[in-house]
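If your schedule permits, I should be very grateful for your opinion on a structural question. Please examine both parts with care and let me know of anything in them that strikes you as inconsistent. The record follows directly beneath this note:
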Amino acid sequence: MLRRVVFNQKGGVGKTTMVANLAALSAACGLRTLAIDLDVQGNLSQYLLGNDRPGRNAADFFESTLGFSLQTPPFSSYAVSTRFEGLDVVAADPRLEEMQVKLETKQKVRKLRQALDRLTGYDAVWIDTPPAFNFYSRSALIAADRCLIPFDCDAFSRQALYTLLDNIQELRADHNEALEIEGIIINQYQSRAKLPVRLVAELKAEGRPVLDPPLSSSVKIRESHECQTPLIHMAPSHRVTLEYQQLYDHLAGATS
């Protein structure tokens, strides 16, 4: 069971959209897939569940780690089915914000990894993270096997990328030496604009693990958010859907 986290400390770079669409492709390809929403905003949960509010969620899991019981419920008990076959989600909850300090103080940052180590019944796990290097993003990076980094093409994103890579390398050394940076995903790419083309070329020249294809900028993404339906189910033949499919096929081929 391969566990991937999509992470960037910068907001608005497409983390949630990537997790939802790559997880949906994973399920559509026949893998029993679990998506985990660790962002208090809960956008992934809304994308995949609509306005449904599951009885148990990620906050309940982390709250259980603060108790004194030696036996906590299996992580799968916090997952709920989506309307997309083969795809389940552990939803976010606003309570994640208020319990973060207590979790940090009590050093619970490895609890997610321990729970996923015991998880059965799934072939793939995709984790969405908050746009900050905080307790939940560090928990996800410690729990994951692979890390994907979204990148939108501007100078601020480039500087943030270097800081992010340094933070991940430090976390690897301290907590998860097996974590692999699987690649940088270029998002909202405009092939006719000079700046994106130059930035991507420079990142590749630096030897950064930039993945192909880049994901194009399209209003179809916003429509997908509004419909609360991943692209593979809403617009399977659209250009951006095909780019996601090609990206997913590349990732799947690299791990087969």
Q: What stands out?
A: The radius of gyration is 18 Å.
